[in-house]
């Protein structure tokens, strides 16, 4: 295979395939678990929504219960997906470094949750402001902060430091 400075797209695809074949269950679980959770949460919420729409009379109590359940399920999804992005970042980083990853290891992300939460809130605010400024600035900020979680899990950085490192990497 060619050296790193002369690698082609085909070389990178081959490297990615080799890495995938070494850890297919781990890598597939990074995608399948959030999908299954989303389906498990969305299906009951959608059934409840359809049931409420088919009722001829408006039942305020049932409506409020439906709204409450939908909000709780939505909040659960947001919290899970935040947690899972940190799991994905840590797992893919460890695999890229050639470290062995097992399913139990994947979930040990507690040291990174607080910095990742801080970075996510800052990034979300910056991206939202950018989106209000005619979308393109928001997309630019989104690109600039895309490596934040990797800096948090790979170099144990804090939120601001990881955002700055992500900006420097992209620039």
Explain how this protein is built.
The protein starts with 8 loop residues before the first helix and ends with a helix. The chain is mainly alpha-helical and 171 residues long. Helix 5 runs antiparallel to helix 7. The protein is globular and about 70 Å long. The chain has helices at residues 9-22, 24-54, 60-96, 103-106, 110-132, 136-144, 148-155, 159-170.
End-to-end separation in angstroms reads 29 Å
The chain-level mean pLDDT equals 85
Q: What's the helix count?
A: 8
Sheet of most strands: none
* Gross geometry: globular
Radius of gyration: 20 Å
Q: What percent of the residues sit in helical stretches (DSSP H or I)?
A: over 70%
Number of strands: 0
Structural class: mainly alpha
SSE topology string: HHHHHHHH
Low-confidence stretches: none
Strand fraction: under 5%
Secondary-structure map:
Elements: H1 9-22, H2 24-54, H3 60-96, H4 103-106, H5 110-132, H6 136-144, H7 148-155, H8 159-170
Helix pairs in contact: 2-3, 3-7, 5-6, 5-7, 5-8, 7-8
């Amino acid at each position: 295979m060619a050296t790193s400075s002369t690698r082609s797209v085909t070389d990178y695809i081959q490297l990615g395939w080799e890495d995938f074949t070494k850890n297919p269950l781990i890598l597939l679980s990074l995608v399948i678990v959030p999908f299954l959770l989303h389906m498990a949460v969305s299906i009951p919420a959608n059934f409840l929504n359809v049931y409420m729409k088919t009722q001829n009379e408006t039942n305020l109590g049932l409506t409020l219960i439906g709204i409450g359940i939908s909000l709780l399920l939505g909040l659960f999804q947001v919290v899970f997906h935040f947690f899972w992005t940190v799991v994905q970042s840590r797992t893919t980083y460890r695999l890229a470094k050639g470290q062995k990853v097992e399913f139990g290891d994947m979930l040990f992300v507690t040291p990174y949750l607080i910095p990742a939460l801080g970075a996510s809130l800052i990034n979300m605010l910056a991206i939202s402001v950018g989106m209000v400024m005619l979308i393109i600035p928001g997309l630019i900020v989104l690109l600039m902060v895309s490596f934040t979680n990797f800096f948090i899990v790979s170099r144990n950085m804090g939120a601001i430091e990881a955002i700055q490192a992500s900006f420097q990497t992209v620039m």
